[in-house]
């Protein structure tokens, strides 16, 4: 499967259609590189959409999502950054756990199972990739996915 501007263009278009009613701005910083990644397109795409959907679910009034990709020596990285409610530092180590949700402090009353990020991590790991999170409460969250180029 070739991962390129076209792939991300379609991903962003599909995603935008699903959030039409909301105030969501997507900043596309996808690099121009055409990279051949051996991926399961359905699952890989669903994993990325999970992160984008979270950015909307846990966003504030004016949601801004930046998607940036980089192609460096033997590695392809995808960085998805939002300006949402953020996650307290103490909750970050558990964020990829099955059924884990941040509920303390009445941070949000959005429904979910706590499975999205668990699934996303399983899928990225199954592609020999890694996913990491950085977050600042009330500022936003950034996910970084790195996959080896085969
Ligand atoms: P679902 O199974 O429907 O995806 P969920 O969204 O609650 O449910 P995850 O996607 O696994 O589950 O996310 C786990 C928890 O991490 C969320 O409940 C939320 O508290 C927190 N979280 C995830 N993404 C973000 C984000 N972009 N900004 C702030 N908090 C987030
Ligand atoms: Mg989710």
From TrEMBL:
Residues 1-150 form the Histidine kinase domain. It comes from the Bacteria. This is histidine kinase. It comes from Cellulophaga fucicola. The lineage of its organism: Bacteria, Pseudomonadati, Bacteroidota, Flavobacteriia, Flavobacteriales. The chain holds residues 314 to 463 of 463 of the full protein.
């Amino acid at each position: 499967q070739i991962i390129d501007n076209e792939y991300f263009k379609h991903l962003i278009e599909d995603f935008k259609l699903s959030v039409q009613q909301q105030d969501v701005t997507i900043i596309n910083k996808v690099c121009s590189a055409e990279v051949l990644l051996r991926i399961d397109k359905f699952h890989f795409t669903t994993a990325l959409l999970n992160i984008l959907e979270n950015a909307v679910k846990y966003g504030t009034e004016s949601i801004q999502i930046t998607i940036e990709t980089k192609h460096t020596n033997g590695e392809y990285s995808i960085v998805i950054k939002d300006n949402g409610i953020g996650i307290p530092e103490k909750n970050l180590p558990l964020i990829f756990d099955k059924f884990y949700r941040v509920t303390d402090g009445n941070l949000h009353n959005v429904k979910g199972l706590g499975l999205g990020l668990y699934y996303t991590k399983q899928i990225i790991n199954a592609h020999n990739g890694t996913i990491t999170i950085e977050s600042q409460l009330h500022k936003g969250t950034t996910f970084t996915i790195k996959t080896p180029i085969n």
